[in-house]
Amino acid sequence: MLKVNRATATTGFLERTFHLSEQHTTVRQELLAGLTTFVSMAYILFVNPSILGAAGMDKGAVFTVTALSAILGCLLMAFLANYPIAIAPGLGDNAFFTYSVVLGMGIPWEKAMAGVFVAAVLFTLLSFLKVREVVIDAIPSDLKLAMAAGIGIFIAFVGLQGGGLIVASKTSLVEIGSFTVPTTWLTIFGIFVIAILMAMRVPGSIFIGLVASTILGLVTGLIKAPSSLISMAPSMGPTFGVSLKNLPSVADPQMWAVVLIFLLVAFFDTAGTLIGLAQQAGIMKNNKMPRIGRALMSDSLSMLAGSVMGTTPTAAYVESSAGIAVGGRTGLTALTTGVLFVFSLMFSPLLTVVTSQVTAPALIIVGVLMASALKNIHWDQFEVAVPAFLTIVGMPLTYNISYGIAFGFLTYPILMTAAGRRKEVNGVMWGLLIVFIVLLYILNILPKS
């Protein structure tokens, strides 16, 4: 009887906190979604230390900080915004930090991390003043739909690449991968398992596919079994507080461009991702996201904390779409993902079985689901079709969400004016036109890695 009462009390607490019935979801569905999201994005625990390690940072410390910043971001998103969206250090930002700023511009990582902290402070202020909220609400619905579809195609491309189905080519940039590579068949197997299960309307199809691919990889020896189950989390001492100690270095004019880039890229990467995921989850109401201010504040605070602990900007993760696809609709999904990141600190060896070939099928299938936003774009209006198309293709072809957004925002006001619809373009869109011109110019003059 006592156990029943406790279970009922817990369910009641979760219902009051996350409004599950209102969003037509259940505790089981949310837990499964959170687990699916975690499995899809767990790679960042190993990829982030690898990339930042190339900049001279301690990989062990970065591993711990990556997990902690993800935990904080997910908890904030769960309880502040009640969204099924996970937060962790962004891949694009860490690559820019290492290859463009540290290696390309020759700026020590300690000094560069101070730039990340300043950008995070500005980021938080913009969120507190609701500037980010105003900007997102001002984006036309067609461009929001294009962002959702573009992100879907982008993550499908990431999945195809990670699974070995698409590889680099010197003559055509990309080409089909080799089917003689055994691990590529794990991806193919996963795609068919998930696709067949989804066609049969089986709940949790994506997660089942991930588990099936992992088991097949372990049985066939394509995935190496972990040598141990438990290990202590490394100390974050080598990176903690380094950004604060190096704040005076931000006075260097060379760092101003770095701060601006981190600020703008983080701003629009997260904005685009939030919009795309909200479209997928059916959260958008009258072209607006409820509680968008809280979601943006969650992202900002986690970025600020991450910069103090010692990692590059955090961001809303497109892999959250995998959890949304299996039914995640509330913050309980994000909370579950955050709790699993806590456990990942102790069971990090187990995460090595979740290879890119295992997660690739989930990304590809979710890309299909997100691409459905294409049907609602007004393709019959040329002045709308061009910006939407450039937004969509720009993301995968430049391998950057922000570039795709920039292409759309640069052309939309101009073509709408040319079509005699200037009054439909608000002042915010004209302001963003100037912002993106400046952003693309700065990116173009920075040393290339």
Automatic annotation (TrEMBL):
The chain crosses the membrane at residues 31-48, 60-81, 112-131, 143-167, 179-199, 206-225, 255-278, 330-351, 358-377, 427-446. One of its GO terms (molecular function) is purine nucleobase transmembrane transporter activity. It is found in: Cell membrane. It holds the Pfam family Xan_ur_permease. The keyword Transmembrane helix applies. The keyword Transport applies. One of its GO terms (cellular component) is plasma membrane. It is a multi-pass membrane protein. InterPro entries: Azg-like, Azg-like_bact_archaea, NCS2. Keywords: Cell membrane, Membrane, Transmembrane, Transmembrane helix, Transport. It comes from the Bacteria. PANTHER family: GUANINE_HYPOXANTHINE PERMEASE PBUG, XANTHINE/URACIL PERMEASE C887.17-RELATED. Belongs to the nucleobase:cation symporter-2 (NCS2) (TC 2.A.40) family. Azg-like subfamily. This is Xanthine uracil vitamin C permease. It comes from Levilactobacillus acidifarinae DSM 19394 = JCM 15949.
